[in-house]
Amino acid sequence: MLAGFLLAAASAISAQAVHADDVSANLRLMAFGSEAQLTSVNHAIARFNEKYPNVKVEVSIDPITNGWGDYVTHVLSQFNANNAYDVYGTAIETFKTFETRGIFVPLDDYIAKNGTYSDFDPSLFKYSSYQGKTYFIPIGWNNIMINYNRKLFKDAGVDYPTDWTWDQFREVAKKLTKRDAAGNVTQYGYEVPNQNFFVQPWFFTNGTSVLNADWTASNMLDPKVAETLQFLHDLIHVDKVSPIPGKDSMDNQFAAGQVAMISRGHWILENAKRAHLDMDVADVPSKVTDTTVVGFGGYAVSKTSKYPELAKELVGALTSEETQKEEGELGGGVPGRKSAAETPGFLAFPPSAA
């Protein structure tokens, strides 16, 4: 019995040992995002392979076209089929679902050994933890802001927004809405969001939310929730400065100059740069507060990985300063590392990037 235990222990140690020169392994990485993320991920893997030349990393990237719920279903089905990846990139929308199912390993020891993680804002690690253990190493984050087309503001003779209120925003949206001779809208002032993440700041700036403080019950009966929904309703149906939200968002129309303002995060800059769009960002208009919402991503290591220590090393490359800088400058999320968010390349666009 003891001999069998020692043999199994030796086998486990051998399977997890990381020797840069001689280890051979195949790792599978499931990441998310678009071209900016894929480019930075591939370059991170190249740096990882400089140290571990005999480790092959297979990459799959999910654009999250169908939302995070679909991503969760996809990942859980992989675990149920005993076909899980070694490393997963995901976002805070999924953290609790994955944490409560115990499918990832705690990363606290690895984080403690890596002094460079002090470069991250502590709050990102706080919300990467569950019941005292950290299961995700954060990457980029996004706060929902008002993204606006500066050219359309100039054409309408409207000053760029600074500190503004709901009422001021409403008047600006009216001025930025154009109609043809028949009364058909040719340019919308704003797109009322069709996604929960994008619309949350409107509730927060009114001092409320659709859930209670600890997310255990509905808060929909709060009069401020109704007031917020009425405001958004009126932008669509009374002022007619926004179309009725549909299945598709208006990112393409924003890039084409057909809508002047949208509520998005930093990721929109990738397409804005490609379209040479003259745009900037502004705080969400306030009613009782100026609070917005933040979301972020992170990497986790699967509990089923045959090479957990090697997988952690891959996560280290994926969350390095070099990777963070590249993704941020290409137009991904705001880097979790402060050093990567303070580079001239990152702060160059949009004008209010800082």
Walk me through this protein's architecture:
It is built from 15 helices and twelve strands. The chain has about 350 residues and is α+β, with helices and mostly antiparallel strands. It folds into two domains: about 1-140 and about 295-345, D-Maltodextrin-Binding Protein, domain 2 (3-Layer(aba) Sandwich); about 145-290, 3-Layer(aba) Sandwich (D-Maltodextrin-Binding Protein, domain 2), CATH 3.40.190. α2 (about 35-50) links the parallel β1 (about 25-30) and β2 (about 55-60). α2 runs antiparallel to α14 (about 320-330). It is globular, with a radius of gyration of 23 Å. The termini are far apart. About 40% of the residues are buried.
TL;DR of this structure?
This protein is an alpha+beta fold. The chain is built from 15 helices and 12 strands. It has helices spanning 2-16, 35-51, 68-80, 92-101, 108-113, 122-126, 150-155, 166-175, 196-204, 223-237, 251-255, 269-274, 308-318, 321-330, 344-347; strands at 25-32, 55-62, 87-91, 129-130, 133-134, 137-143, 145-149, 178-179, 185-187, 261-264, 279-282, 294-301.
Question: Helices and strands in order, then pairings?
Answer:
Layout: H1 2-16, E1 25-32, H2 35-51, E2 55-62, H3 68-80, E3 87-91, H4 92-101, H5 108-113, H6 122-126, E4 129-130, E5 133-134, E6 137-143, E7 145-149, H7 150-155, H8 166-175, E8 178-179, E9 185-187, H9 196-204, H10 223-237, H11 251-255, E10 261-264, H12 269-274, E11 279-282, E12 294-301, H13 308-318, H14 321-330, H15 344-347
